[in-house]
Design a protein that fits this description.
This protein is of the alpha+beta class. The protein is built from 2 helices and 5 strands. The chain has a 5-stranded antiparallel sheet, with helices on one face. The structure holds guanosine-5'-monophosphate and zinc ion.
């Protein structure tokens, strides 16, 4: 999607601190980290949010969850939180599906 920030990060039009990439997904450091380790993992396929995940495209989500443990290990964290905000009132600000991987400290409860 031409006007999507994360599509531009995938294409390299906008620079990012990449930590992992394969044919289906891309992972990079969050520009405003909320924890010592804060990685965003995104599908290369543009999906707006979890709300657009369906039976036809959900394999990419399974794939992302298969790489998150590897990324976490590479980042030196054994325990972490995976979050995906779906919609503005849930805190979503970039409308390309992404999974936050947060760790490296004791994380507080959220609401
Ligand atoms: P959301 O608020 O949609 O759940 O998460 C979007 C995340 O993207 C935020 O944590 C924000 O800091 C991060 N972000 C926004 N713009 C950029 C950017 O240009 N580069 C990187 N690396 N992260 C970004
Ligand atoms: Zn996109």
């Amino acid at each position: 999607m031409s006007d999507c920030l994360f599509c531009k990060i995938i294409s390299g039009d906008i620079p990012s601190d990449k930590v992992y990439e394969d044919e289906l997904c891309y992972a990079f450091k969050d520009i405003a980290p909320m924890a010592p380790v804060h990685i965003l993992v995104i599908p290369k396929l543009h999906l707006t949010s979890v709300a657009e995940v369906n039976a036809d495209n959900c394999s990419v989500v399974g794939h992302i969850f298969s790489v998150i443990p590897k990324i976490a290990k590479e980042q030196g964290i054994e325990e972490y939180r995976v979050v995906s905000n779906c919609g503005e009132t849930a805190g979503q600000s970039v409308f390309h599906l992404h999974f936050h991987v947060l760790g490296g400290k004791t994380l507080g409860q959220f609401n």
